[in-house]
Amino acid sequence: MNVSFTKAEIADLSVLLPLTKEFYIEHPLEFNQERMQSGLSQLLENPDLGLAWIIKFESSTVGYLILTFGFSLEFAGRDAFIDEIYLRPEYRGRGLGEAAVAYAQEYAKASGITAIHLEVAKGKEQAIGLNEKMGFESREGNFLMSWSK
Hints:
The protein has four helices and five strands. The termini are far apart. Helix 1 crosses helix 2 (33-45). The longest helix is centred in the C-terminal third of the chain and has 16 residues, at 96-111. The protein is of the alpha+beta class. Strands 1-2-3-4-5 form a five-stranded mixed β-sheet, sandwiched between helices. The chain has helices spanning 13-26, 33-45, 96-111, 125-133, and strands at 3-7, 50-57, 60-72, 77-87, 115-118. The chain has a single domain (3-133), classed as 3-Layer(aba) Sandwich (Aminopeptidase).
């Protein structure tokens, strides 16, 4: 499979912004260009917060993967969250999502990250199945809850 992952730099904002907009429209989430640009800039300029990778397939840009960092006593160390993973619809079903998750897992192992977490929307059975295949387990009795200012 001819898939590659390129660590995004601040110069890649012009590539990432349209992809994030596609992701937000599809899910549907409110997309605010200024807020997204600010968030991506902070992430790309501070690797202690996390990393972004641009996903390419046969030299075409097809998506992105965002991995953010935290710390967990429960998991005894630094953990990470697949904050967003997006593949353009015409590239889905080719194993690229699985390759992207595996890439994040390999990065985590090499970087001393003890756990990766992710969120899957209810009703997305294909995504749930893929993540279970990749070794992710649902945490029954736990709900992802968020606070935002």
